[in-house]
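Office hours follow-up: a student asked to see two folded examples consecutively, so here they are.
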Amino acid sequence: MSTPELIDASRYPSPEAADATAIYAVGDVHGRLDLLEEIEAAIATDIVASRPLRPVICYLGDYVDRGPASAQVIDRLATPFGDGVARVFLKGNHEDRMLEFLEAPAAAGPAWLQYGGREALESYGVSVPDRPDGPDWTDLRDALSSALPPTHILFLRALRLAFAWRGHLFVHAGLDPARPVHAQHARDLMWIREPFLSADRDWGVRVVHGHVIVDEPVFRPNRIGIDTGAYHSGRLTCLVVSDDGTRLIQTGR
């Protein structure tokens, strides 16, 4: 078996955000188009009020599954934000699973459906047959492939694993504390929970992540977690990072 490629997470600057002066990091959307629209409107209002010279929005991944409007969320994200605001899109474990399903439906399908894939399929107009022996995974994959607009495929395949900016590292899930930032496995950036969450390691950057649902955003010296379970709580969280420090924008507040 080949050894998984190691990723230097610190080497993920973005050309779109090279001269950014403020980052708006948006947590896990999970098919909640209504909350995405609300948080983006709040971000636009904040940009007008705070007047950062070069604002950039960084979405932390998990755009699909669980909520009712995965297709509509991707459609909105694949459309320019307006007013020249740059955006960076990271890859979450749910996008990773969706892409795996398109490549290997029988292997990835059961777990994907269990954790929200059914809702994602339905948002594309693909129904999952209720059969005692389970769905025909290849037929289901083919139906999704036919329903996916080309812009959505391009969006999913262009997602980034990390984004580094001014002492902060934005990823979906976290880092493996047994490894330095410059030698991470791609899967950990999208999937890890423990031992990352309990680690007190100083990576030389503060990690901003989603992936793990918390009642309130978690601020620790080495990480900030902002997945507030939007798909069921109604609270989608955005962390604003600038030279003035950090602050929060949330829906439903």
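And the second, which I mentioned at the end of office hours:
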Amino acid sequence: MDKKEQILNALRELFKEGKAGTASVSDIAKKAGIAKGGMYYYFRSKEEVLDALVSQEYADIIKACNELVEQSDGNATHKLALLLHSYRNSYVDPSLDEYLHMPQNAAIHQKSLAQILSALSQVVSQIIEQGIEEGTFICEYPQEYAEIILSVFTFLLDPGIFPWTKEQRAAKMKALADMLEKGLCAPKDSFQFLYMPD
């Protein structure tokens, strides 16, 4: 394992122990088993370490969602259901998630949401294009539709930003399903998976 990975793992461990919020660069270096000066060779500040860790965590989620879609030979609707289900059920350490939702970490949180939206919207756009080829969707703006879908999942449904009730979330999913069905001229109930229980 290289030193950079050691440092990220050290911060990850400090999150699990509930100590990351108050940890200094020295604490991270000590946990990683390297000299404080060695830390500065890889990262200029604790914020840079956090930024790299968050980026890595979300890159793993993006990779898992992408691989799931690539391995599927299902139709476009099935692939979209797979991707969104995988994203909704992806795991982020609760202590890291809580830290990201603190007001002072808004910039890093916004960057992570943009990372997901940008990467996964490419995959969703390809799925929509597959649906067009299959004749189940009609859409002039696959990329823009993809970005709108992902903005709902990355922002509107983020419980750390909007603490919706279960009923409110379900209503929003029904509205999204209705919009997609009409907007993509898809067969009736194509997007039931958005609000039906798993």
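Two things to take away from it. The domain at 1-44 is CATH 1.10.10.60 (Arc Repressor Mutant, subunit A). The CA atoms of residues 57 and 104 lie 20 Å apart.
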